[in-house]
Write a structure and sequence with these properties.
- It is built from two helices and 40 strands.
- By secondary structure, the protein is an alpha/beta fold.
- The protein has a 22-stranded parallel beta sheet that branches. Strands 1, 2, 3, 4, 39 and 40 form a six-stranded antiparallel beta sheet that branches. Strands 22-25-28-31-34 form a five-stranded parallel beta sheet, with no helix packed on it.
- It is extended, with a radius of gyration of 34 Å.
- It starts with 12 loop residues before the first helix and ends with a strand.
Length: about 425
């Protein structure tokens, strides 16, 4: 074939096609990369968040474990290592002045979360109910109220528009709930003339409205002992006396600002006017205590989360003396969260069939106030507002109210023989 009849085959078409394909591929890769990059970032963020939660959860658990061991007196090391599902928590415990610091570092693939608990040392006392009563029982009258649970070894009786925002328990075979309105459940051998918004546990019941479930022939709840032993109160008295003794003038009157305690005062004490009384330790009064007018009673800031007791106890006369009365607009202030003033009377009149009142709180007295008279009768009346009350016998009338705070279940006092630990703070660092 002559050269004049030969056809030239183009050689650049394949190259052009390859070029187009390459551009399309590059474009696709750019689009895919643009779409996948945020997705991958989201996946990484989600994974980091999940691993962070795992680190935090184990650090919290590790702190809880060591804190529990310290509180229960169980064995533990200064450094504890806990590993679960690829997460490791290293917990270290350091002894500070009067405190222990527990720090746990949780680690999941180098994602760190750290939890710290600070525990204060001292006497641990648990007041687990808004109101706890001995064999003398409790009487609620008028519009009195308890925001919390009532546990009584004696009868729980009431009249008027009284209300308990919680469970009411009258323990033992003679347990009686009569004329009471409880927003939760009621437990007693006999329940009469009451309103129980929750369930009712009983062996006898009459004229009672129950919104929940009835449990007839229920086992009677056990009676219980008082939460603060006389031996511990005696120890507090000893601690107060070590701080000093005031024996005159008598009666000992406070009507201006003062910082006091720990101290033993060997006569009646009267706080009146509008002073600020700052308590740096327990006060033991071997007579009667009267707080009136617009006095402010405070726990010293140096006490921290600890509480202070004011004790009326004349060991030579616990039938007509050893009493406390708080009236008018006296106010009580703790040093911070979990800090309270505990007014104690060792009067034994009610326990022995007498009519003397161990503690009276009336008018508009209120604040971080706890009342304790395990052998005597307590009277709360008018517009009183306090945090917890425990007594052999209790009467609450008019518009008096008890507003229980859960922190009281782990109450700490800064002196005494037990040397227990209470949680002062707990946070992530």
């Amino acid at each position: 074939m002559s050269k004049s009849h030969q056809r030239k085959i183009p050689t650049n078409k394949g190259q052009a096609m390859i070029t187009v394909v390459m551009f399309l591929l590059a474009g696709s890769l750019i689009v895919i990369g643009g779409v996948s990059s945020p997705v991958l970032k989201d996946i990484k963020i989600t994974r980091n968040l999940e691993e962070s939660k795992q680190s935090f959860s184990l650090s919290e658990g590790a702190v809880e474990d060591v804190v529990y061991r310290i509180q229960k007196g169980l064995n533990f090391s200064d450094t504890e290592i806990l590993s679960v599902n690829g997460v490791t928590a290293t917990t270290t415990t350091v002894v500070l002045t009067g405190k222990r610091e527990v720090v746990a570092v949780g680690d999941k693939n180098n994602i760190i979360r750290t939890t710290r608990a600070l525990m204060a040392q001292g006497d641990g006392v648990s007041l687990n109910y808004g109101v706890q009563v001995g064999d003398g029982g409790i009487i609620m009258e008028n519009s009195s109220s308890v925001q919390g649970n009532i546990y009584s070894s004696g009868p729980v009786t009431g009249s008027g528009s009284n209300i308990t925002s919680g469970t009411v328990i009258s323990a033992g075979p003679n347990g009686l709930i009569d004329g009471i309105h409880a927003t939760s459940s009621g437990y007693a051998h006999t329940i009469n003339n009451s309103e129980i918004d929750g369930d009712a546990y009983y062996q006898n019941i009459s004229n009672t409205e129950v919104d929940g479930t009835l449990y007839p022939w229920s086992t009677d709840q056990p009676t219980t002992t008082m939460p603060i032993l006389d031996s511990l109160i005696s120890q507090w008295e000893t601690d107060a006396e070590i701080g000093g003794v005031i024996s005159s003038p008598c009666p000992y009157k406070i009507d201006s600002d003062v910082t006091i305690g720990p101290v033993k005062i060997t006569c009646d004490v009267e706080i009146s006017g509008s002073p600020i009384v700052t308590l740096e330790g327990h006060i033991w009064i071997t007579g009667n205590l009267l707080i009136k007018n617009s006095s402010d009673i405070k726990v010293a800031s140096s006490i921290g989360s600890g509480s202070v007791a004011m004790i009326a106890d004349n060991p030579s006369d616990r039938l007509t003396s050893s009493k406390a009365k708080i009236t008018n607009s006296a106010e009580f202030f703790g040093a911070g969260l979990g800090s309270y003033i505990l007014v104690v009377s060792q009067n034994e009149s009610a326990e022995n069939g007498g009519s003397e009142k161990a503690i009276e709180v009336e008018n508009s007295a209120n604040g971080d106030l706890l009342i304790y008279a395990s052998h005597g009768e307590i009277l709360l009346q008018n517009s009183v507002s306090l945090k917890e009350v425990t007594g052999y016998k209790i009467r609450i009338k008019n518009s008096a109210e008890v507003i229980y705070e859960t922190g009281i279940a782990s109450l700490l006092f800064t002196s005494g023989p037990s040397g227990g630990f209470s949680i002062d703070s707990w946070l992530e660092i």
